[in-house]
Fold each of these.
Amino acid sequence: MSDPLVMRYYPQIYDLDHCKKMLDTILTSYRVRGYSMFAVERKADGEFLGQIGLLHWDDVDAREDVEVAYLLRPEFWKMGYATEAARACRDWAFDNLGVDRVVSFIDVNNAPSISVAERNGMARLKRLDSNRLGRPIYVYGISRTQWLERASDKPRP
């Protein structure tokens, strides 16, 4: 999170203190909600790729939402890791949280993240120009009904 390339669509680059606070928030979310961000490792060798997981929001789109969020190291971009993990997070949210939709909040200029959201079955729902993130974002989402329709097209493990 201190890499300018990784953080180019975020309001700021995070220093060590900010990362420690973020880790505390993640651990609190696990205790309170039962989910948050995961460290992503490559199965073959345990290499740390980044973080992908679920975030709870109640102040971005004027409703409570569960967001699939992803942030990988640049050397692991365009390899399918973000899409694979994002799909697993989406499925887990629908299977375990009783939510009616799952979203991703994405900077309007972040074409790679938009592509991951679309491969995750999400469609652009709206643009928010004024929000807590301090920059215009798109709200991408998939409803439970849409997810169930997609799931019926192929067997699930």
Note: The radius of gyration is 15 Å.
Amino acid sequence: MRLLLTRPQEDAASIGEALRARGHVPVLAPLMEVRFRDGPALSLDKVQAILATSANGVRAIVRRCARRDLPLFAVGPQTAQTARAAGFQRVVNAGGDSAALAERAAAELDPAKGALFHAAGAETAGRLAQTLCARGFAVESAVLYEAVPVAALPETAARALRADALDGVLLFSPRSARIFADLVAAAGLAAHAARLKAYCISAATAGALEKLAFAGVKVADSPNQESMLALLPPSGS
């Protein structure tokens, strides 16, 4: 299958490799550009653990803080893998979404032992902190990066859609799904998108595609990369 990958360039690398290993052909068309925010080094002296809701959160904190001794609670396996590769000594994989991350952190950490630090993106700041504050934790949240939508559908995607050269599209968040739907409609390619199958990481992601029709929409059982890959039929089928 030829599958459109809409994730930012660095995030698309691992799933692109996984798709090739399964005999599929990834077509990269990032819909957002990740921009890291510069600033002074972060002091985490009174923090007992770091919370990361994305691999970009890990990359962002690595740019601003040299400490790797604090436990890092990661939203899912790709974020956890990024944290381990960055040198964090204890990484806890919540294996789900921000709600799962909050539950795991609350179960393993003690509010009396210090604050939690959320390495947030502009779109994720506040929600996780609110949940954990209600459980008695002090949460420091800093926006360290933002994912900025591209102005127009990437030419790789537009060209493949016009040629009806795609079998499906992989979408990893409601926001990316909305951006995809908006840009495809603006490019006048909705009829071509209707030939595709949409593979979505969550029901909310599938719901954000309401502007477009598809040949089929499938939703992952769990909000992670492995569940997304499990949606795909074997190569050649």
Note: The two ends are 9 Å apart (CA to CA).
